[in-house]
Hints:
This protein has 489 residues and is α+β, with helices and mostly antiparallel strands. The chain folds into four domains: 2-154, 2-Layer Sandwich (Beta-Lactamase), CATH 3.30.450.280; 174-273, Beta-Lactamase; 276-346; 363-489, Histidine kinase-like ATPase, C-terminal domain (Heat Shock Protein 90, 2-Layer Sandwich). It has 13 helices and 18 strands. The strands form four sheets. Strands 1, 2, 3, 4, 5 and 6 form a six-stranded antiparallel sheet that branches. α10 (319-342) packs antiparallel against α11. Pfam families: GAF_PdtaS, HATPase_c, HisKA_2, PAS_4. Its EC number is 2.7.13.3. InterPro entries: H_kinase_PdtaS_GAF_sf (IPR038424), HATPase_C_sf (IPR036890), HATPase_dom (IPR003594), His_kinase_dom (IPR005467), PAS-like_dom_sf (IPR035965), PAS_4 (IPR013656), PdtaS_GAF (IPR022066), Sig_transdc_His_kin-like_C (IPR004358). It catalyses: ATP + protein L-histidine = ADP + protein N-phospho-L-histidine.
Amino acid sequence: MAIFTDPIREHADFGPGDAEWLHLLVGDWQMVADLAFADLALWFPHPDHGYVALAHVRPSTTHTVFHGDFVGEPIRQDLQPLVDKAWSSRAIERSSETNWSTDMALRVEAVPMVRNGRTLAVVTTHMDLSSSRMPSRLELTYRQCAYDLLRMGTLGLWPDFASPTGSRRGAPRVGDGLIRLDAEGIVQYASPNGVSAFRRLGDGESLEGRSLAEVTAGLLKDRRLVDETLPLVVTGRMPWRSEIESRGVSLSLRAIPLRDEQQRFGALVLCRDVSELRRREMELVTKDATIREIHHRVKNNLQTVAALLRMQSRRMVSDEAKQGLEQAMRRVATIALVHETLSQGLAQSVDFDELIGRQFRLSAEVASPSQQVKTERAGLFGELPSDFATPLALVINELVTNAVEHGLAGRAGTVWLIADRSEEEDGEELLTVTIADDGVGLPDTPHVEGLGLQIVRTLVTSELGGTIAWHPRDGGGTAVQIRLSLAAR
């Protein structure tokens, strides 16, 4: 996002990794907003406006105090002195006055994000104090956890580059369950959702006062399947993710070690029941494997049909019947080749250049057993949708066969296959495919189309939604041009 990166790039004092560190902060600060029950804003110096807001996050554990979007806007005058003080002191600064805004009492803190002895930016927290109720133990614990994380930010200890940044589904969040450990891995506090998650695993006792590592070890049935990162996560020693599975329940765990200048004094462990997610992922894997197997079996069946057609053609006495069976055999073999390609991957697209490269040469060779026919390719098809591959491969097969049998008409020559992907002014992506030969050219009088060309026209217009046209080729011969839109695929 330009608003985030442009001011950072203009800051000459940044060293290696500083900008990435701030990006890591913004990528993970939803957790802090949820723990602090507060909105967070990230401020960066601006030569004309004092500071400019680079990012803003709202808590999911309470209501927001900022309903409007102020990212990219200059800092308010009443907030700038507090941010200036935090920038200079490199310590957390709290507003001495309660800030009343729109009938809401706000407590504002400014937290400098310091790395390698330099303040890189300032995070402000904005918490609503207008509620008259006493905060619960959960809320007090959450706020303390948020303070500890932000305090680590002033020391350059958080965010940690070793933290997981992968996109695997099911990453635990604050609301899913939180467990706070001391330096020895003993549970100091477990949120109700955290307790429920471990109860589903089979632990029936209270977690507080017990070693989370021992609790986890007691739940493991088959230790051969244990993630090797699990011991370091449940003791809070490393900022990693892990998973534990027991009694059909899968629990995703994430540890955030808490440190000060001297030592690690505890850890936060976020936990989430991901049983349903993992079940669905397994279903998808099973379905993908089933689809690949179906493609493989269809390919085998089609190859069997092609072999039967070949055997039948050898028994034919009539040349016309033999030629018809051979043409049917080629068409079946072309479809089988597409299914073979689809059976080798999970993607919904096909590398059409790899597929058609073999098919193009084979089509020309089969159609010209007694001719010297050269094949040349130009351009790239690229990745095409799987439902595009079969009809397009059949069309090219028919047109190449037609070019050899009728265009070259029994003599030596060359057949070209040219692909061109382009983009129109309106953004629509087009694919233009040209099959050309240096043969006898188009006939002077219209002729009746055979089955092959009827198949081609039907596939191009109905299956591919494109157009096809025949033209004389410069230098002699014929060129067939197919234009297809890729916008809806």
